[in-house]
């Protein structure tokens, strides 16, 4: 998968997220209007509202992780708000230890690394994202990890012995995207910790 394929994948990601974010926003607005007039209440409404909120949060996250990204800065407040929404529908707590606004394409790499860590944490855990002097570190810690040895061992090269599934696409995309930005990915694992640097 070369640079052209990475760009094509990013354009596809951007297009899908762009086309889905508007209708989900409209559904959300409709639900708010129904709540205001008191038309429907109860567990059914809560289920629909929660599902729409979850879908919206994931699409905003995926838009950064899989969409095309420039070096336009993303501020800490915007990133932490987005992560808070995603966190509320998942099992992983994210600690964003980056105080400055960062280029969107670097945040994209951090989000892909976060997804890699999350895939190893089926029971949940904590992921800490830090940037020191331009070098990023994304560390996932949990009592119980489920580490796919092939994915983690071969993450730096982005060439895997087994076929990558849709649920694992971040492992293929992270090293390719990093390489297109002149960055190299390093990964390490222990029984309770996974770490990615780029």
UniProtKB/TrEMBL annotation:
<protein>
    <recommendedName>
        <fullName>Histidine phosphotransferase ChpT C-terminal domain-containing protein</fullName>
    </recommendedName>
</protein>
<dbReference type="InterPro" id="IPR018762">
    <property type="entry name" value="ChpT_C"/>
</dbReference>
<feature type="domain" description="Histidine phosphotransferase ChpT C-terminal">
    <location>
        <begin position="77"/>
        <end position="191"/>
    </location>
</feature>
<dbReference type="InterPro" id="IPR036890">
    <property type="entry name" value="HATPase_C_sf"/>
</dbReference>
<dbReference type="Pfam" id="PF10090">
    <property type="entry name" value="HPTransfase"/>
</dbReference>
């Amino acid at each position: 998968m070369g640079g052209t394929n990475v760009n094509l994948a990013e354009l596809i990601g951007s297009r899908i997220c762009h086309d889905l974010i508007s209708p989900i926003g409209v559904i959300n607005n409709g639900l708010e209007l129904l709540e205001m007039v008191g038309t429907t209440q109860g567990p059914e409404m809560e289920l629909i509202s929660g599902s729409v909120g979850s879908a919206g949060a994931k699409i905003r996250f995926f838009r950064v992780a899989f969409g095309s990204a420039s070096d336009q800065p993303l501020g800490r407040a915007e990133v932490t708000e987005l992560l808070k929404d995603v966190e509320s529908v998942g099992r992983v707590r994210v600690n964003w230890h980056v105080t400055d606004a960062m280029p969107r394409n670097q945040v994209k790499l951090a989000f892909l690394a976060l997804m890699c860590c999350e895939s190893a944490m089926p029971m949940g855990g904590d992921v800490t994202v830090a940037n020191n002097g331009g070098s990023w570190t994304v560390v996932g810690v949990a009592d119980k990890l489920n580490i796919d040895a092939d994915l983690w061992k071969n993450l730096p090269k982005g060439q895997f012995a087994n076929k990558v599934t849709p649920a694992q696409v971040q492992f293929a995309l992270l090293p390719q995207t990093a390489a297109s930005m002149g960055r190299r990915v390093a990964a390490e694992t222990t029984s309770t910790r996974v770490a990615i640097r780029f």
